[in-house]
What does this fold into?
Amino acid sequence: MNLEDRVIIITGASSGIGEATAKKLSKHGASVVLMARSKDKLEKLRDTITNNGGKAIAVSGDVTKSDDFKNAVSDTVKAYGKVDGLINNAGLMPLSFVEKLKTDEWDKMVDVNIKGVLNGVSAVLPELINNEGGDIINISSMAAHAYFPGGAVYCATKSAVKMFSEGLRQELAPKYGINVTSIEPGAVATNLTSTITDEDIKEKISGMQEMKTLESEDIANAIYYALTQPKHVNINDVFIVPSEQK
Ligand code: NDP
It folds into this structure.
């Protein structure tokens, strides 16, 4: 149980990578704080974890609202007395070609994928400093390494997350003992494509469904690896893709 006594907030915990990560970390002793908008799903996951002997609380909230994040942090401190880590995982991927001008979807991606991460860091940082160290793990993407069709805005948001992570690491790790990791997955079998409204993109990505993708548990394992290193070891980036993905 090598995450015993570690208190970790996970955003986007109501499905996919966030849910698998909550299960994995709690299985190894962490107290997990589940944050997303879907209260029912969070409560169900909390019950599953606690019924299996783990520790979890559910805090519904929207990462685009800085007050929701502040509440999540104060609920965490009330329940467990401290915060040791934040996994900024919540994200959206409504891919579309730029010429379609789906500007509402561009705004949503900027708000959730970038501003959501900034809100998380600003809410949690005073606690991590107070705690004399901790971990911030940001879920970027393979999209930070290469453009793919319909991904101009999404790839830009994930590039921002990757570079923000590097800035955070350089500013926080040496001074405060706060280690920072950017995780950059290729295709993972989750609900992420469910927000796509551009029919041309839906057709294009249908081919990808034949590939053997990663599972959410593969990313949870990478997160676990980053979190279980000795304090003097910072895992900067984990670029992890399906063997079949080019
Ligand atoms: P899912 O769609 O399964 O999960 C997305 C999660 O984000 C949900 O729990 C959703 O919860 C949450 N979320 C969305 N908007 C908000 C919001 N405003 N406030 C709080 N939570 C929100 O997809 P994944 O598990 O795949 O996605 C997790 C992360 O992994 C994302 O950042 C994604 O970009 C990244 N990623 C995924 C890849 C993939 O192939 N699947 C590849 C590379 C990166 P709710 O709706 O309840 O709020």
Remarks:
- Residues 103-130 form the longest helix (28 residues).
- The chain has a mean pLDDT of 96.
- The pocket of NDP is lined by residues 11-12, 14-18, 36-38, 62-64, 89-93, 112, 139, 141, 185, 187-188, 190-192 (CB under 6 Å).
- The domain at 7-240 is CATH 3.40.50.720 (Rossmann fold).
